[in-house]
Amino acid sequence: MDSKQFRQLIEQVAVIKDRKPTTNGSHRPAMETVIELDEDGEEVEVERRVQDNPTLGFEFVKLKPNKKPCELGCGKHVDNQIVERRLAQHPKPHWRTKCQTCGYFVHPTGLGFVETGQQIQAEYVKWFNKGCPTELESNVLVRPENMNKPKVKTKTKNGTWVLNPDGSITLVEDNQNS
């Protein structure tokens, strides 16, 4: 890959600008000696300032926005989405998913979103106490109208459950029979 191809690839995702030679008082401007032909056709050495120096490269100004549909299925189009998935230990070990861009947590059933950490904690306690049902009565559930249902996989003491996009739940692994 040559420098032009590399530059084109970088320009697809970021705004860049060329670096110019320094011209302040503490540094002498870069000079180059060029041989040119004068009016009589004789070769003459001419010293001139360097305007473009490819060895200086370029510098990043900023990344271009990367708008795409929300990975969690809320229906929003977000720039540079960050999804946090972490293992929570209380009330039982489980994975929590949160969109750092909009701040919503995915509900334990996978059928909506919860706004705060305190609310998601209470929802997981209710969910585990009721035996991990597919539908859970909740007054804190946020469900955007254009929300896609994500496929959620949850491990419990009874086994591994998968919430399908159509809202049904499937037992993938049964821990009681093992």
Q: How many strands?
A: 13
- pLDDT below 50 for ≥5 consecutive residues: which ranges? none
Distance between the ends? 55 Å
Structural class: mainly beta
How helix-rich are the residues, as a percent range? Answer: 10-25%
Beta strand %:
35-45%
User: Taking Cα atoms only, what radius of gyration do you get, to the nearest Å?
Assistant: 30 Å
Order of helices and strands: HEEEEEEEEEEHEEE
Number of helices: 2
Largest sheet: 3 strands, antiparallel
Mean pLDDT: 76
Strand order of the largest sheet: 11-12-13
Spatial shape? rod-shaped
Q: List the domain count as a whole number.
A: 2
SSE topology sketch:
Blueprint lengths: L2 H11 E5 L12 E7 L5 E7 L8 E6 L3 E3 L7 E3 L3 E6 L5 E6 L5 E2 L6 E2 L2 H13 L22 E5 L2 E5 L5 E6 L4
Antiparallel strand pairs: 1-4, 2-3, 5-6, 7-8, 9-10, 11-12, 12-13
